[in-house]
Amino acid sequence: MINAACAQPVNYSFWIPREIRRGFRLGFLVGWVMWSALSPAQGQQEAATPSTASSPSALPSLPSSGFSQSKQAYVISPDDLLNIDVFDVPHISRSYRVSPDGSLTLPLLPETIDAAGLTPNQLSSVIAEKLRAAGLVKNPHVTVAVQESRLHAVAVAGAVKRPQIYPVFGRTTFLDVLSQAEGLADDAGNTATITRGEVAAQVMTVADDPNQANTPPALPRMVTVDLKRLLASGDPTLNPDVFPGDRVTVQRAGIIYVVGAVNRAGGFPLKDDLEEMTVLKAIALAQDLKPTAEKNRAVIMRKNPQIPGGREEIPVDLKMVLIGRAPDRPMHPNDILFVPDSAGKKALRRAAEAAIQLTTGIIIWHR
Questions:
Q1: Which of 19, 39, 84, 277: CA 20 to 30 A from 68?
Q2: How much is the pLDDT for 208?
Q3: Which domains are delineated in the chain?
Q4: 185-187-188 Cα angle (round to 5)
Q5: What element of type H or E holds 146?
C-alpha cells in the first residue's frame, strides 16, 4: 500500500543552494541584456558594409555600349541576308536581302519595313503586326534569323588559300580566321595586317576610356602580326583578337625569277620576306647552270622607275662569282636573273652528241 505522503510531487529544489540559484538567474539576466544591446549594432554594421558579392568594386560593370552589347542583341544592318519564317505561310517564308537603305520588302505588304537598326526579335514583332494589320494572317508567328552579314564579317585577303569574306558574329582570334581561310598560301610572307573596323574601334575606345562609350568610333587602327613567331611558338599574346568588320591581309613574300640557260627556269617564292636572296642561291634553286651557259654575260633585271623604261640591267659575271673572285650580288623581290645561252656552245654540244650517237651505232653494228 502506497503511502499518501510519498504520492505527492517531490521538490528537488533543496538539492541546489539558494545562493547558487540566485547567481544563475543574475547571470542569465546580464547575458540577455548584453545580447540585446549588441544585436542592433551588429545589424547596422552589416547594413553599412555590403557583402563582397554585391559590391560594385568586386564586379566591374561592363560598358553600356560596345562589343558586349552587340553580343547580347544583334542589330540588323543594310545588305544583311535574313531568313524569315512565317508559320504555316510558305509563300512568305524564305530568305530576304535588306536593301542598302535598310528597308525590307515582303510580298503582299503594301509598304516596306525599316529593318536596319532592329534586332531579329524586334523585326519579328514588326512583321507580325504588319501581317495582322493587313489582314493577311490572323495570328502570325514570325521568326527572323540572320543568314549572312557583310558588316558583321571579316574579309581575308592576300596570301591565303581561300581569300574571301567570312561571317563573324562575335569576337574571334587571328588564327581562327586564318583556319577558316584554310591556312597560308605557298608565297605567304612573315607578316599580316589587321585593319580595324567600327566594332573594334568602338570596343578599343571603351576599353581605353569607359567615359567615352557614347562617342563615335575612332579611326581604324592597324595591327601587325608576326606570322613566323606566332606559328613557331603559339604564344597567345601574338594572336590578336579579330572583330566583325575587320580586314585581314596576309602579305605575300617576294618572288625572284631565273630564266635562260638553267636546268629549271621559273619563279621561286621567298619563304622568308626578310631573307637575303643572292645570285648563287637563285642558281641553286634553278638546279645549276647548263653547260652552254655564258657565265660572264648574265644580268639582273630590276625595276627602277627612275630609269627610262622602268627597268635597269645589272651585269653579273657568274664565272668570277662561282670561283669566289667576285661578290655574290643580292637579289630583290621581283628581280629576274637572266643567263644567256651560247649559240656556238649549243651547236658544238649538238655536234658532240651526234658524234657520240654515231660512234655508239657503229660499235653496236660491228658487234
A1: 84
A2: 52
A3: 67-148 (3.30.1950.10), 153-252 (3.10.560.10), 255-345 (3.10.560.10)
A4: 65
A5: strand 142-148
